[in-house]
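[audit] Reproducing an earlier prediction to check determinism. Same input, same settings, fresh worker. If the C-alpha cells differ from the archived copy the diff job will pick it up downstream; this log only records the rerun itself.
[audit] input (375 residues):
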Amino acid sequence: MQSSEGVNQFAVISTIMPHSNRETADNYRWAMIISAVLIIGATALGLLPIAIAAAAFLVPISYLVYIYDVNLWEDAPAPVVAGLFLVTGVLSVLVSLFFFDWVFADQFREFAASSRMGMDSFPLVPLLIFAVLLPVVAELVKNLPGVLLARMPQFDDMIDGLTFGVAAGTAYAAFETIVLYRSVFTSGDIRTDQGLATWVVVIINLMVIKSLIYGTASGIAVAAFSGKGEGYDGFTGYYVKNLGFAMVMNVLYWVGVRLAANLPYGQLIGLLWGFVILVVLVIRIRVMMQAALLEAAVEAAAKSDPSKRETFVESFCPECENMLLAGSHFCIVCGTSVRSSSHQARRGMGSPGDAPVGVADPGSDTGTGTTGGAP
C-alpha cells in the first residue's frame, strides 16, 4: 500500500503487492494489462485452451514473480511460496474433482443444464452444494497451507500471513479453473466465433475477479491467524470472525454468479457482481494491511539500532501489541504510556522494578515479559 493512497481506496496492485513502490507497481500493472489484452486476443482467435490456462495463472504467476522480486524473506525466498502454490494446487484439484466428478457429478450436470432453462427450473440442492458448501470447504482448504507456514517463527508477522493467504487463494483459483474447464483442453469442437462476447466476459472473470476474490478472502483470514505482536495469535475469536467473513464473501460471490447465469446477460451480471464483492474485500484487506505494514515498520525500527542490538529484548505494547523501541516508555504507535498502563497489562510486562522496557536485566538471562500471540 503506497503512502499516497488512502486506506479505503480501491487499488488492487498496491493491495496484493504491498512491498512495491509506485514505479514497480506501475510495471506490474502494465505487464498484467498487456497480458490480459493478449489473452483476450487469443480468445478472439479461437485459442481457447491457451486463453483459459493463461487467464487462470496470470495473477498467481505475477504474484510469485513479485515475491521473488522483493525478496521478502532473505533466508527463505520464493521457493517457500512456490511450494505453497504447489501444495494448494494439489488440494484444489482434489477438492474440485471430489465435488465436480467423484461425488456430486449428477448434481453438477443438473446445475449446468438449469442455466439454459431459466429461473423457473432452477434446482435448489445443486445451488447449496456448489454455491454454499463448496466455497466454505474451499476456504478451509485455502487456509491450511498458509496457517501451517504462519506458525513458524520466521513467518509469524501479519504481513506474512496476508502474503501466504493471497498466494494460496490465487493458486487455488487457478487449479480449480483448470479442473472445471478441462473439457476445453480435451475437446476440439468448442468455438468462440458465435459467442465471443460471452467468452470474453468469462475469461475476464477467471483472469481477474475470481482469482482476486479467492486471494484477498484467504489473505484476510490467514492474516488474522498471524495477528499482531509476538508470535502468531492462532485460532482466536478474531481469526474465526475473519475466516467466517471470507467464507461469507465467497458464498455471496458464487450464489450471485450461479443465479445470474439463469438471467439474460447473466455472465455480464455475474462479472459486475463479482466486482462488487472484490471492492468490499480489497477495502477490508487494506485496513488489515495498514496494521500489518505498521507492525513490520516498527519491528524493523526496534531492531535496527546496532548499539543496542546485543542487549535488546523484544517487548510489546500491552494495548496495541506492536513492538516497543529499546528503552522506550511510550508506544510510538498508539502513544500508550508503558509505566501508566493498566495493572493487568503491567503484570504481563513485569514489575515496576524490572529493567527498562526493551533492555535486558544484567542480572538475568531474560528481559521483560511480553504480551502477544502464541509462542
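[audit] rerun output stored. Observation attached for the diff report: Residues 266-302 form the longest helix (37 residues).
[audit] end
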